[in-house]
Every structure is written in C-alpha cells, then in structure tokens.
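# nightly structure sweep
# worker-07 picked up a monomer target from the shared queue
# config: single-sequence mode, recycle default, output format = structure tokens
# input follows
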Amino acid sequence: MRGTVARMVAVLSIASRAGVAVRVVRCGGRHRGWSAPEGRSAPELVLVRRGWFRRRTRAGVFEADPTVGYLSLPDQEETFAHPGGGDVCTAIQFAPALWASLFGEHRPATPAVYVDAALELAHRQFIASTRQADSDYALPESLLALTRAAIGPAPHLGTRTTPHIGTWATDRDIVARARIAIVERHPAAGTLLSLAELLHVSPFRLSRAFTREMGVPLTRYRNRVRVGVVLERLEGGETDLAGLAADLGFADQAHLTRTVKEHVGHPPTALRRLLGTTDV
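# output follows
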C-alpha cells in the first residue's frame, strides 16, 4: 500500500507525576499501510497489552506484541502499521531529567524489549499503582521495578555519590539518611524521586537498598511512619481527620483511613476509643 495512512488512535492519560507520564494507547481498525512519521520529545517505553502492530525506524521493522515491547528515543523517527486490527499498549514517557538520573548516557543495545512473564506481571502491577492514592511513592517504586526489569539500570549508576559528600556512601548510610528524612518530614521526602535527589543517589539504588536493608519497600515504610504520627495525634485528641490527612500528605481522609486500618487493623474512629480519647 503506497503513501501513508491515518491511524485511528485513542489516547487516555492514566497518570502524570513529576518526571513521568503514563498513557493507554488504543489503535482501532486494520491498517496495513504505514502511518505518517512520528517523533518523540522524550524517551518512552511501550509495552503491548493486547494485539500486535508493526513499528518501522531507520534500524528496520519489527512486530510489537505482548511478548515484545520497545524503547522509543527522541532521536528516532518511527512509523506504524496495524495489519492485525485493534491493539492496546501502555506508553510510559520519561522526562529527560528523570531519564538521565536513571540511565545517564546509557543506551540499550537494542530498542526491542523481551517481555517474559515476570515483566508482564511488573507491567500489570505498575498499571495498578497508577490507581493507588499514594502514587507519589507507589507509582515510582512500581516504575523502577518495571524499567529495571525491562531495560536494566546502566552499569555505572547507583554506585557512587556526588563528589561533595566526600566518600562513597554505603547502602546502610543511604537508608539511614532516607529514614531520617522521612521521620523528620523533610519536604523532599514527599516523593521517592525527590528523596533520591536529596540523597544524591539514583532512585534505582535507593529503592533497592531500602527494601534490602529494612525488609519493606519505601512506600510501606513511609506509610508506617505516617500511621505513627496519626496515632500520636489521635492520642492527643485530634478530631479533624480531613485536616490530619492533608497535613500528612494523604490523598484524602478515606486514604488515611484505609492506610491506618491496613497497618493497625482499626480505623481512626475505633483507635480514639482504644487510646482512651473521646470520639467526637
């Protein structure tokens, strides 16, 4: 088929946080011809959920399907064909600064990403994390797990701190400093990515080291600290749960209630009674 064809594409944004934008891309119809050339303004990881399609770059043509995704970089021009009919994929776009913090100048040897069963599970867990209220931590942690499984960190990243720290920090040092920042409610501890920047380490290293040293991921640890503050405030007579939720960075009062119940087995209203305070 000569020339180019218009693609029937529906794009739904399902998450947007500092440094990352996640979209669901649905292409309908059967189009054997190639689309008009497209470019990317930032690196993008594309994983197929259903169906298959063809992608063409100057490196050649290959078929993307649920077992093979790809990494699209800004210096690549690409066109697409959809001879198989409708397909659905997840497109994860990284801001250049985030990409640099994760991978530096590292470029995978091939843009193709083999999706084994473990990576498919990581993909589905990542999608689930976009629906969680605590996405400032849950989404980046799932993103790091997904990109590490799909692409892998650059060999040199996450091994050395910035020069002004003076020494190579051990994982235990990094985790201790992360814990202090969270406990002291440092502004940079509001998201995993800003916490890693504060500590001058890659998000990959921080996430991996924290889980190994503490036995729990950063998301759960941060929530455990926040639940401790909730208990203290309830014991002190706090009754404004909506205000408390906002103060501690929860999405809303319902998010606070769910998190507290998950950690201690009781909602805040029951905790007031257990702690001997008056339920107003």
